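User: Can you write out an input/output pair for a complex, sequences first and structure second?

Assistant: Here is one pair. Inputs:
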Amino acid sequence: MSSSAVNGADIPRHVAIVMDGNGRWAKKRFMPRFFGHKQGVDALVRTVQACADRGIEYLTVFAFSSENWKRPTEEVSGLMGLVLVAVSKYLTKLAKEGVRIRIVGDRDAVSDKVREAWNQAESATAHNTRITLSVAFNYGGRWDVVQACRQAMRAGVAPEALDETTLSRFMAMSYAPDPDLFIRTGGEVRVSNFLLWQVAYSEFVFTDCLWPDFGEAELDSALRSFAARDRRFGAVPTGQPVAENSI
Ligand code: FPP
């Protein structure tokens, strides 16, 4: 099943990726930034396939942040247009391969065309079970916490009744377990408002690899690093005295 060097038991259920470095990848080739984003879509499709082959159940990627509207107008419209191109080029292939697509983020601000493309991607793949690809689009971790609180209030949850489990039910990714492994490409070492609530106990891997170059080798390297981690979720390491600092 897996072509990775990692034992099946050590494979994360959920991998989240900040796909950074498209612009620099294009610049190195004296090409416009959009060319990097276009290659980024191909890297994404490759990565979905590689994750599915390794038995990863959920892959969540940051495609457009709530803050990305601050980019030059032509880059923003290029990214929006890329959604339409990506859906028409890859939807059939991904659907056939058992990929379920979910979009997380605020759909109100995107154009009707983009919203329709996302709706089409979700409905055409809703029955699939091999891997769930969540595309965070017009998404921000803080937006998610706020929208979850609003929904909880609308649903009439009393302040005293609001606990972590209850709020989690209103988060945009309530259908998925929290990410086990968080990867960021492109050399920056920050979270950038991605899945703030959900990464409480994720393991982080930062790589200098620019996103369009990401593939099986980089994924396997991150998976090996993940497999070597000692995940404690705040508990003490096995066999250690309880008084020892365990964070
Ligand atoms: C960050 O690289 C990347 C983005 C803001 C866009 C990510 C989008 C894709 C990979 C394409 C996927 C798109 C769809 C439609 C699913 P950057 O532009 O910040 O690169 P830089 O840090 O080198 O400038």
